[in-house]
Amino acid sequence: MTDTTPTPPAASTPAPAVGPKTNVLAIVSLVTGILGLSIVAIITGHIGLSQIKKRGEGGNVLAIVGLVLGYLGSLIWIGIWISVIATGAFLSTYGTFSY
Q1: Is 60 a member of any domain?
Q2: Which of 3, 41, 77, 83 has its CA 20 to 30 A from that of 50?
Q3: 3 domain residue, yes or no
């Protein structure tokens, strides 16, 4: 007689855990913040954060870093413009520099 015991089914390997999809606007915010496009980084960062909360996507940190870089870039540009305007006002009042 032959042994006809069924072989147990092969153990299936579990699929690797896949995290949530990264929000595209969060990536855009980070990249434009690095490139110095402050307004774009701020707008896409805020929209990206909103989408992340609604959709449960990943990329929260990317959007926040993009926002921080965007706001820092804006502050730097505001400082540059204030110094340019102040220099222009000084020169129009006191004339040119003479040594």
Answers
A1: yes
A2: 77
A3: no
* CA–CA separation, 30 and 60 (whole Å): 11
Full DSSP string of the chain? ----PPPPPPPPPPPPP--PPBPHHHHHHHHHHHHT-HHHHHHHHHHHHHHHHHHT-B-HHHHHHHHHHHHHHHHHHHHHHHHHHHHHHHHHHH-S---
Is residue 3 packed enough to be buried (19+ CB in 10 Å), middle (13-18) or exposed (0-12)? exposed
pTM: 0.74
